[in-house]
Amino acid sequence: MSPKYKLTYFNGKGIGESLRWLLAYSGEEFEDIRFTIEEWPSIKPTIPYGKLPVLDIDGKKASQSVALARYLGKQAGLGGKDLWEDLQIDIIVDTIGDFRNELKSLKLRQDKDEKVKAEKIEKFAKEIIPFYMNKLDAIVKENHGYVANGKLSWGDIYLVSMVDFVSTFIARDLLTPYSNLAALQKKITSIPKIKAWIDKRPDSEF
């Protein structure tokens, strides 16, 4: 019998969206529990380590988004064939984490001054995005259209879902100048079960 999944996260893409894509890819039914940022303070005490997302697997709660993505990826057969291949995937996923942390450090949600916010986004777009996307684009080219090991892995789904989130969050197209990444994005979002999820998912502000 397939496990029962319940995913708890904000009403947004963020670091929870890769888990939704991986569950969709696997064909797993899951309960998608969402709440607003305003509701978070009352919910936080009930969450392990006070961090989201949380994935409930047959009644057992687990947290940490990358650990959960790795778990779901391996469950779906999207891990490496050995420890070396797993390492190549992890390197890319950790690099994406560094990229996300650069965005997080801007603290855009706390900015009330729209001019300051726009200036921060502009600098991020001119300096940080090219730094990471150029490197990732070259890696995808070297790996014959994928982020690692020349084949589809959970790292590809993680990358494309994170780009999807960042593009929405800062209202910028990240990948048009990067042909290899753009091709990977098209490949992942065209996977029938992931496309079906994207088509039906709720609208969200981030």
Automatic annotation (TrEMBL):
* InterPro entries linked to this entry: Glutathione-S-Trfase_C-like, Glutathione-S-Trfase_C_sf, Glutathione_S-Trfase, Glutathione_S-Trfase_N, GST_C, GST_superfamily, Thioredoxin-like_sf
Might you give the EC number(s) for this enzyme? 2.5.1.18
This protein's superkingdom? Eukaryota
Question: Pfam families, alphabetically?
Answer: GST_C_3, GST_N
Q: Which reaction does it catalyse?
A: RX + glutathione = an S-substituted glutathione + a halide anion + H(+)
Residue ranges constituting the GST C-terminal domain according to the UniProt record: 82-206
- What family is this protein classified in? Belongs to the GST superfamily. Sigma family.
**Keyword annotations of the record:** Transferase
What is the protein's name according to its record? glutathione transferase
Q: Which Gene3D superfamilies match?
A: 1.20.1050.10, Glutaredoxin
Q: Where is the GST N-terminal domain?
A: 3-80
Instruction: Name the enzyme's class.
Output: transferase
